[in-house]
Amino acid sequence: MAANGTADILSSAYLAVEYVDAVLPENPFHPSLKHAWGYMLDNYSKFQIATWGSLFVHEFIYLLFCLPGFLFQFLPFMQKYKIQQDKPETWEKQWRCFKMLVFNHFCIQFPLICGTYYFTEYFSIPYDWDSMPRWTSLLARCFGCAVIEDTWHYFLHRILHHKRIYKYIHKVHHEFTAPFGMQAEYAHPAETLILGAGFFIGIMVFCNHMFFLWAWVAFRLLETIDVHSGYDIPMNPLHLIPFYAGARFHDFHHMNFIGNYSSTFTWWDKLLNTDSQYNKYMQRRGDKKEQ
């Protein structure tokens, strides 16, 4: 009886998902994406797609999302949105950051990317177009990955701030008290592996297609570059995400060093009261504006 009841519940849930999926609009980029994906499958092997394709996606998206923040420093009208206006970007800092990024991307992250093909083969992750998940499924799965990554990041990040180990690893990321977008992945190689593990845990749980891997990469890069941008841009669409932390929340972490340990959401900091200093800071800031 219990087994039949469980089967009925799962069947009803499946039908509900199918119904919601059927009434939602199609992805407007569906025809173009289908053509591009078909061309890629016809001309490249799975190994090439998983390895070189993933490297290209990571580097292209990282540079693309960093570009607006890089240009903001040359646009006077954008300076009113800069959070720490007394600490402008400098060429020296940006060049030092870029050199570290090149090392991390190609000496730490690329070897990990080389394992993508073997991961997809071992877990029978499909590449074909017929198995392509709908955009709603991609969004839901990316959100699930973000929840997992954020939880991992909060607790491991907080541990990396412990006084006994901070100077050996996480201190590198805090070289810049006023962050800028390109600095999102500026970190000690050990930190890249430790905090980066949360990114892969989500993949282990939610991955159902090769394209999902790239969608999750894009979402995670967009989020981490945004929170490190140093600019609190009005009407930022990412703020439509429930409990999204944003640039001002994470910028305070770099400025204050203590508190606001989450990467994407605010709930762990709220639950464990590690946003108390931030809340007091924002209250004082609000009081000054009223005066």
Describe, in plain words, how this protein is organized in 3D.
One of its GO terms (molecular function) is iron ion binding. Residues 144-274 form the Fatty acid hydroxylase domain. The chain crosses the membrane at residues 60-78, 98-118, 192-217. This is Methylsterol monooxygenase 1. It is found in: Membrane. By secondary structure, the protein is mainly alpha-helical. It has one domain. The chain is built from eleven helices and no strands. It has helices spanning 2-23, 30-43, 46-72, 91-113, 116-122, 135-160, 189-206, 210-227, 246-256, 267-271, 276-290. Helix 3 (46-72) crosses helix 5 and helix 6 (135-160) packs antiparallel against helix 7 (189-206). The longest helix is centred in the first third of the chain and has 27 residues, at 46-72. It starts with a helix and ends with a helix. The model has no long low-confidence stretch (mean pLDDT 89).
By DSSP (H or I, 4+ residues per run), the number of helices equals 11
Helix proportion of residues, in percent? Answer: 55-70%
Shape assignment: globular
The H-and-E topology, N to C, reads as HHHHHHHHHHH
Number of strands: 0
Query: How many structural domains in the coordinates?
Result: 1
Structural class: mainly alpha
Tell me about the largest β-sheet: none
Mean pLDDT: 89
Low-confidence spans? none
Rg, nearest Å: 21 Å
Beta-strand share of residues: under 5%
Amino-to-carboxy terminus distance: 68 Å
Brief overview:
By secondary structure, the protein is mostly helical.
Which tags fit this structure?
291 residues, mainly alpha, 0% strand, globular, oxidoreductase activity, Sterol_Desaturase_Related
